[in-house]
Amino acid sequence: MKCSRNIELMNNQALELVKCLWKEINRQQDVDVAEVIRKPTNLLLDAAEVGNFRFLAELIGSYPDFVHELDENGRSIFHIAILNRHMNVFNLIYEQGFNKQLLATYLDSCGNNILHLAAKYRSPSPYRTVSGAALEMQRELLIYKEVEMIVQPSYREMKNYDGKTPRELFTVEHLELLRRDEQWMKNRASSSIIVATLVATMAFAAAFIVPGGKDDKTGLPIHLRENWFQVFAISDAIAFSCSVISVAFFLSILTSQFAEDDFLRSLPLKLLGGLSVLFVSIVFVLVAFFSTLFLAYDHGVNWIVVPSGLVSFVPTVVIALLQVPVLKDIFCSTCCPSLAM
Fold first, then answer.
1. In 10 A of CB 320, how many CB atoms?
2. Domain boundaries of the chain, sorted by first residue
3. 43-96 confidence digits (pLDDT tens)
4. What kind and span of H or E run contains 148?
5. How would DSSP label each residue in 154-180?
6. What is the distance between the alpha carbons of residues 80 and 53, in angstroms, rounded to a whole number?
7. pTM of the predicted model as reported, rounded to 2 decimal places
8. Are 248 and 196 in contact (CB under 8 A)?
9. Which CATH superfamily is domain 9-176 in?
C-alpha cells in the first residue's frame, strides 16, 4: 500500500513537471514545438509504446495535430497503442473528437492498417492480471472488435503486403493461444466436473440417510418437525440441484467446438455459470453438515457443536478467496468489457 502511494505521488509530481515544462515551451516564440517533441527521440511515440496515458492526454490536449505524428514504420500513436494493447491511450481517439475514419486509413510500411495491428498477438502477454488463458483470448477478441468498429468496411477485408486480411492475420497470430485456451478450458471443466459430481453424490446420499434415522413405525425421519431438519432438507436439495446444473455447464464446455468467437462470450459465460453454481452447491453442503451437527449433538453439548460448525465453514472462506477473483475477472470481461479494458 505504501509503495503504491509513493508511485502515485511520483507520477503526479512527474505530470506536474511536464505541465510546467510545456507551459514554458509554449511561452517561447521562436521554438518549434514539433522539433522539441521529436528530438532526441519522439516523446509522443515513446509514451504511446509504454502506455503513458496522462502524458499523452496533456500534450494532445494542447496540440491535437500531434495525433498525425508517425514513426519510421508509418504508425501513429493510436497504431502503436493498439499494437502494445494500451486501450486507455487508444480511447483518446474518442475523447478528443478526432477523425477516426481518417486515422484508420493510415497504412504502415508493411501495408497493415490499424485493424491488422489489432490482429497481431503481442508476446509476452500484456495481460498480467487476467485469470487464465481463455480470458486472454477474450481480451484479444474484444480489442479486435473495438477497432473493427472504427474502420471502414473495405478496410476489414484489405490485404497487407503478405496477402492477409485482418481476420486471417488474427487467426494465424493467435493459433497457439487458441490451442492453449482450449486446453485450459478443458482442464478447468474436467477438474470442476469431478468436484461437482462428488458434491452431487454426497447430497443425493444425504437425502436418504437422514440425520437421526427414521421412526420404525411410521418410516418418517425422527427430527422431521425440528427447524434444523428443515434447514438440512432445503440445503441438501439446493446443493444437489446446483451441483447437477454445474455438471451440465461443464459438459457443455467439453462438447464445444472451441472456435475463436466462442471465447468472446459463449465459453466464458458457461464457465462463469458453472463455477458460480458449483460454489453455491459447496456452500449449501456445508450448511447441511452444520445443521446435521445440531440435530445429532444438540443435547447439552453445544460447546462441541458450535466450534465444530464454525470450523466446518473454513473451507467456504478458502474457496471464496480462491474463486471470487476468478469469477470477478470473468464477469467483468464478459458482462462489462469496457471496465475490463
1. 14
2. 9-176, 185-340
3. 777 888 888 787 787 777 777 777 777 888 888 888 888 988 888 888 877 766
4. helix 133-148
5. HHHS---TTS--HHHHHHHHTHHHHHH
6. 13
7. 0.77
8. no
9. Ankyrin repeat-containing domain (1.25.40.20)
